[in-house]
Every structure is written in C-alpha cells, then in structure tokens.
Amino acid sequence: MTIFQQRQQALQREMIERGWSGFLVTNNVDIYYYCGSMQTGYLFIPAEGDALYLVRRSLVRAEEEASAAVEALGSLKTLGERLRARCAGGRGSAASPLRIATELDVLPVQLYLRLQAALPGAAWEDGSLLVREQRMIKSPDEVTAIRAAARVVDAALEAAIPHIREGMAEFELMALIEHQLRLRGHQGLMRMRAYNSELITGMVAAGAAAAVPTYFDGPAGGTGLHPSSPQSSGRALIGRGEPILVDIGCSIDGYLIDQTRTLVIGDLDPELQRAYDVAEQVLRATEARLQPGVIAEHLYLLALDQVHGAGLSAHFMGYGADQVKFLGHGIGLEIDELPVLAKGFKYPLAPGMVIAIEPKFTFPGRGVVGIEDTYLITENGYEKLTISRDGILRV
Fold it and tell me: Phi and psi of 48, rounded to 5°?
C-alpha cells in the first residue's frame, strides 16, 4: 500500500465518523497529497471503497502516477451518477441525502454551483479543515524532502553572499539567490493556500525598502518592481550599514523550507542590532518549549510577553496597522499550513508537525531585522531542519 492510499484510508475513517458519503478533492495540492498526481480533474474518495481520479488532462500521465483508479472526466452532466455509484449508500434519498465534503476554503463559487447542479439533492460539507489537519503531520518522506530543501537554501545563500556589494539593486541579489536555488533543484514555485495570496521565492530587501508594508501577510513587505506585484525586491540600491533581510524558501519534490537571515555590509546600527538580538532570544526561548503537548497559541503569547519586556512591542512582526498577529506557521506542500502560532490556535504540538518560527522587528524608514528557522516536532522535543549559520551575517 502506498503512502497515498494510507492517506485515503485515514480520510475515510474520519468521513465514517462524521457520516459523510464521500470527499470530492478539487484543489491541486490536495489531489497530489492523496493520490500522488496533479493532473486536471477531481479525486473522489468514498467513505468506503476505492478512490476514483476523474481527469480532464493528462489522462495518460495520471494513469502513470496516481494511486487511484483513473477515468476520463467527461461531462459534468454525468459526474453525479458516477459519484453516486461509488458511494456505499447508493443514490441517497430526501430523508437521508448523500453528504459530500469538499474544500470550501479554496473552491470557486461558480464551480461549487456547477457541482451542486451535478449532484441534485446532495448535502455539501466543508472538509477543508479536516484536510489541513491531516496534512499537519508529516510522513518521514515528507520530512526528507524538507530537509533536502533546507540544504539547498543554505548552499544557495552561501554561494550568493560573496557577490553582495554596496550599490547593487535588491532585485539583483534576489536573482543571484534564485539562480543558485534553481541550479540545485528548486522547483521555482512556492505555493500558498490563502485566497489572493501569492508568494515568489522569498522576501529579499534592504533598509527602508524592506519595511514598506504591503498586502502580504507577513512582517516585511518590500516595494516589489511594480504595484502589480507589490512585494519583495525592488530597484532600491543596497547601502552600507543597512539590514538586508533574506527571507527565502525552496521547494524540493513539492515540499517547502522557510528561513530568514539578516545580512549587513559593514556594521548594523546599535538599535537594530539590539532588536536582532531580541529576535534571537525569542527564537531560543520558543525552541526551549517545542515539545509535544504544548499549545500553539501559548508560544505566541509568551513571545509577546518577551518582546514587551524588551520594549519592542511596537515593532514586533510589522509596525502600526500593518503588524501581523503570529509568530510562526506550519509548512509543507504550502507555506501557510497549520498549525499557526497565533492567538486562538489551540492545537497541541504533535510529533510530525513542521513549523517555521520567525520573530522579526520592523522599523519604518530603517529596515527589518530578524531570523527564521523551520523545526520538526519529535517525540522528545524538536529537530531544527534549517541549517544556515545564525547571527548577523556580515558581508
């Protein structure tokens, strides 16, 4: 039995407990997670029985890759009958309709209405949280891919550092790093689940430009090259003594790593150096509490207390109205996975979770400093997956 079939069975057990008839997986990343292929179509996992992958294209490739039976999708007019035939309860009835779950967090409304029309009388359930919770716990193979991504990020950063010079444009540094990442196998794609959220390889910016806020849900924005892509590296020139924020990721076999390092040409301003030191202290204090059973929310609240004690609350994870309200986030096939280290997230840490922790401080007009590492929660504590050297990296 493949890991994908094991995941299908885990989902089926949860569906049986909830009384769901089946799960129609529509999101590309989730389709891959449950069957090992990412071709255009839908994966239907009944509460009992075998999964069916209905593919528009490429049928040939899906047949080669998928851990599921594969059929041509055909017309949506026939979809309802085909799904009903797969359900143990058959057609359902007015008194006991089929209950079909799907990922309502990402499903477009127009497609949802078409699916409703294809399955008249079915009750639709939001299964998105169930999928995201199942994906929180990583398999050994998933962790292996994330470790490989960490090695690539470290090697790419070290290869780029000797070429950093005063007066180079931010986007030149980003291009250098991206080139090194791609040479080492980075797939060039960083996926996010949140609606209207996009992410390039990372946030690489220096000085005041790094502190320019933007729509992206993070503590640093960056100007970007144009308002149509208002994040990360722009045309600003890197100056001596400015903090250079290098918040980069990498995707190997679909799995992501996330890390941040702060660089400087010369020496950092003492106030910014102190803020960086506090960021490292927050990270070390959080590390000390990384063990199974600790509630995700508590780590964030403890960090807030620590930052308040240092007198830096106004700058923590952004500034003013643009501060973000988290300390870290799960990571895997997407950059914004569960659990989130934030208020209201009551998940206890569990072995197999992979979490990026990123204390940062934003100073408008001056820059952003901080550090980020990614961790695997283990039976006895944690393993740090990122391997790049800590501390301010002086160029």
Answer: -135, 140
CB count, 10 Å around CB of 153? 31
**Cα–Cα nearest to 290, from 187, 374, 173:** 374
Q: How far is CA 372 from the centre of its chain?
A: 14
Q: Which domains are assigned to the chain?
A: 3-134 (3.40.350.10), 137-394 (3.90.230.10)
- pLDDT tier, 22 (very low <50, low <70, confident <90, very high otherwise): very high
- Spatial separation of the C-alpha atoms in residues 127 and 142, rounded to whole Å: 22
Q: What are the CA-CA distances from residue 18 to residues 93, 99, 277 (Å)?
A: 18, 10, 48
H or E element in which residue 71 lies: strand 69-72
Mean pLDDT of 155-163: 98
Of the chain, the end-to-end C-alpha distance in Å amounts to 50
Q: Any residues with CB less than 8 A from the CB of 200 and at least 6 apart, and which?
A: 190, 229, 231, 232
Spatial distance between the Cα atoms of 157 and 149, rounded to a whole number of angstroms: 12
CB 98 within 8 A of CB 89: yes
Q: Which residues pair with 124 in a beta bridge?
A: 100
- The candidate with the shortest Cα–Cα distance to 101, out of 68, 78, 134, is 134
Q: Which long-range contacts (CB under 8 A, 24 or more apart) does 300-303 make?
A: 300/326, 300/327, 300/328, 300/341, 300/342, 300/343, 300/345, 301/343, 303/327, 303/341, 303/359
Q: For residues 164-193, give the mean pLDDT.
A: 97
Beta-strand relationship, 202-206 and 244-252: antiparallel
Dist. CA 373–CA 365, nearest whole Å = 26
What is the torsion angle, in degrees rounded to the nearest 10, for the CA atoms of residue 380, residue 385, residue 388 and residue 392?
Answer: -60
Q: Which secondary structure element, helix H or strand E, spans residue 361, and what is its range? A: strand 360-363
Q: Using CA atoms, how far apart are residues 122 and 86, in angstroms rounded to an integer?
A: 14
The most distant pair of C-alpha atoms in the chain lies apart, rounded to whole Å, by: 73
User: Considering the entire predicted model, what is its pTM?
Assistant: 0.96
Q: Judge whether 220 and 261 are in contact, CB under 8 Å.
A: no
Rounded to an integer, what distance in angstroms lies between the CA atom of residue 102 and that of residue 172? 42
Order of strands, edge to edge, in the sheet holding 328-330? 337-341, 328-330, 354-357, 373-377, 382-384
The pLDDT tens digits of the residues spanning 224-241 come to 999 999 999 999 999 999
Q: Is it the case that residue 305 has pLDDT exceeding 70?
A: yes
Q: What pLDDT is recorded for position 91?
A: 52
